[in-house]
Amino acid sequence: MIIDAKTVVITFSIIGVAMYLGLGAIRSFALSIAQENHDANLAIDQSEEARRVKRERDADNAASIAFAKVEPLLPASALPQSQSTHSSSNSISAIDEETPANNATI
Fold first, then answer.
1. CB 102 within 8 A of CB 96
2. d(Cα 16, Cα 11) in Å, to the nearest integer?
3. Residue 3, CB half-sphere, CA atoms under 13 Å: how many?
4. Mean pLDDT calculated for residue range 57-75
5. Distance between the two ends of the chain, CA-based, in angstroms?
6. Which tens digits make up the pLDDT trace of 12-65?
7. Can you give the pLDDT at residue 86?
8. What does each C-alpha distance from 23 to 35, 48, 53, 68, 74 come to in angstroms?
9. Is residue 39 within 8 Å of 31, Cβ to Cβ?
10. How far is CA 99 from CA 6, 42, 95, in A?
């Protein structure tokens, strides 16, 4: 075997091309693994989010059911007044004050 400049250059160029192709193959393999891992993480996050929303909805339903059972037992002063109920009662009382027939019967 003869070792001269031409053989060394050819050997280095073959090794360089082989490393370039090998690293490209490794890079594409690593990219496919990373994409699969990302997709798996997204699926896990979506399933956890769906479970969290379901638990939150179930807790809200349980709270409203419990309040519906307890509401008749609460005194009227302890019940929360909603803004819509309050404004509608004001409009009804305003109508009652404006109607002369209702004032005459009071």
1. yes
2. 8
3. 1
4. 88
5. 125
6. 999 999 999 999 999 999 999 999 999 999 999 999 999 999 999 999 999 999
7. 47
8. 18, 37, 44, 67, 74
9. no
10. 113, 64, 6
Residue 25 DSSP symbol: H
Token pair of 25 as six digits = 């193959």
Range in 11-15, 29-33, 73-77, 95-99 with the lowest mean pLDDT: 95-99
DSSP state of 6: H
**Residue corresponding to tokens 């009662």:** 89
> In the predicted model, is pLDDT for residue 67 greater than 50?
yes
If you write DSSP's letter for every residue of 36-85 in order, what string do you get? HHHHHHHHHHHHHHHHHHHHHHHHHHHHHHHHHHHGGGS-GGGSPPPHHH
Q: pTM for the complete prediction?
A: 0.49
